[in-house]
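Worked problem 6 (solution included).
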Amino acid sequence: MSKTKIYWLCQVIGWSLYGLLQIVLYAIAQQPDVNHVVGEVLLVLFYISTTHFIRYILISRGWLVKTLSILIPRLIGLISVLSLFNFTFLTVYTLLLGELSTRDFMLVPVVLNYFGPFVIYTLWTILYVSFYYFESYNNSLKYEAAAREIELRNLRSQLNPHFMFNALNSIRALVDENPAKAKVAITQLSNILRNSLAVDRQRLISFSDELTTIKDYLALESIRYEERLKTVFEIEPQSEGFMIPPLMIQTLVENGIKHGISTLKNGGVVHLKTIVVDNALSIEIRNSGQLVNGKYRRNKGFGINNTKKRLELIYGNQASFEIRNETNDTVLTKINIPRYL
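Solution. The predicted structure is:
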């Protein structure tokens, strides 16, 4: 059902119930007559028309996009005019029935007959404007969520070609000098690609699945670097209960090897450690190397920038990222993420 049909359905049902309530209350107070019933029917039609006029003005004049400081005075003026029309309508109808008396023009009846409709119009307007803002807010959230998801998919799509290119370069270096190791490396690469394809469309994966990919990747790189690459794992068992973006840690480990350890004559160490504190997961990646002005010398920042953006899109300000020189020969990359979004 379209929004227009829902609007008219609410208008007719809502005001009809209002008119019925008025008739019931009048019947309780005194014996109703045909003139009063007809009057209430006309009043219902009058309210449907005038409130629809308020909606027309709000939309056609663009009042709904105005600031509250501009919108509120305009609405008060419009409602005041419509309340005066309502008062005039009731007065004319009573006059036509021959029931108008001087008492109807005394201060108290005039105030009640004017401010009663004023309150009703105000309540209706508050409901309509609130519904509009609520719907606009929901639409903006849906649009923002869709935009974030598209951006996340684009970021994920950058990782697989990037990783594939680097892995193939590693295998190419082995083909001539050690064909047997190259065959083993190809098998390990196929395992990694199988895992990465399985999680390609997932927003988050378990830490244990990511750890499996990391170990396969490091095994692949160990064939290439041999004794120049050493790995250390300190994984807290509770870490496996956390969900993280796929290939996030693997990308950072790869970043540390490519721009840190590979530049060192004697190679170095990759040390992956996790700590769980207060339902938050802290991931620490230490690798041999050194940052200059906060960056690796040969690094254009792809892995780091990609990780920062993904963390921001998924966790907002609930996650943190930092990379710095921990010692003269060690770079620390640290990520903190919550257990639940």
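Discussion: The chain has a mean pLDDT of 81.
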